[in-house]
Each structure stands twice: as structure tokens, then as C-alpha cells.
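Handout, page 2. Input:
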Amino acid sequence: ADNGDSEDDDDNKETTNSQLPYETILDVCQDIISLDAVMNELHLGPNGGLLYCMEYIEHHFGEVLKLLKERLGIADASGLQHCRAYLLFDLPGQIELTAHSNVITKIAERLVRELDLRLVCVQLVDAAVCLTDVSKFIGASLVCTASMMRLELPCVNVLSKMDLLQDSNLGSTTDGTDNKTESDDDDSDFGCDDYDGSP
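Output:
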């Protein structure tokens, strides 16, 4: 899909790039396929549009790899190993991309096969949600586990946006009550210190 070459599009590209904390080697929204154009032309929602874009990238991954090698200035996998570069692939967080599709798994497999990469998945979980609601934390953990199984990659789960939380809120729920259980307050007989090692 193509947004065209209007001046407005160029302004939008500059605005997007200026908001990133790092320079991009390859921006698929600018260089490969535009989510906004897909949604407008095919009348899809955000999730359906994202899935279409990812499947498009996987189908044309040979062209993506060629463009990536050109930007990195390498001819093959040996060139990448020689420069010992670390590549960060910033992917959308929608669970549909891993729960209902294997497109990201296929892309990861081709990266490993054709560029000889050692991949690890870093999953970001919003701390502001998880640390104030135990059930949401468990739900997020299950989602991360499911993604790890689908991607078949080593995964590191990271609580993000910790800087937005005040220390006083870490142990409290949204209604201001302490996030303790009864076992935190009483002298339970099931503590590890009392365990004698018997089955």
C-alpha cells in the first residue's frame, strides 16, 4: 500500500521520526506498507489491518531482507556477524499477531536462517496495570507465556512505565487499600522456615 508523495505525508514522516528515541534503519510503515493506507483501502480495523500488514511483510520478506542488508551495508550473514551489530525489531503488541497467527514465528525463523541471528523476545507489560490488580498481572503473565510458546524463542518479560508509579502506590490497589492477603498478617504454620523437609 502507498500513501502517495504529498507534502502532508512528508510532514507526518518527519513528525513520527522525531518522536522516536532512536534512529531507525528500516521503518516498515514508510518503506514497505502503511497501516493507515491498508485500513482506509480495505476498510479494516486496527487489529485486522495489522495482521494484513504483517502477512504482507512475511509474503514479501525477501524484499525486506534485501532492503535491510542495504541499510546495514552488508552482503550476507557473515557481514552482520563481523560487525557484531545488535538489531532491535520493534513489533506491535496486539495479541492477535501471536495468538491467532504464526506470521511472526515465520518471520523470526527466516531471520535466523538467512541472517544467522540469535533472537530473544522482550515483552513489555504495563506496570501501572499489573501492580495494582493481581488478576491483571496473572492474565498478563499467561499472555506472555502463550506468546513464548507460539514464538518458540527465549523470552524476557519486563514491567514497563515503572517511572510513572509512585513508591506509595506499589503496594496498594486502585481503591487505596493494601494489596496484602491474610497470610501476610498472621503467623501462618506453612512458612518455609518451619518446613522440616519431609514429604
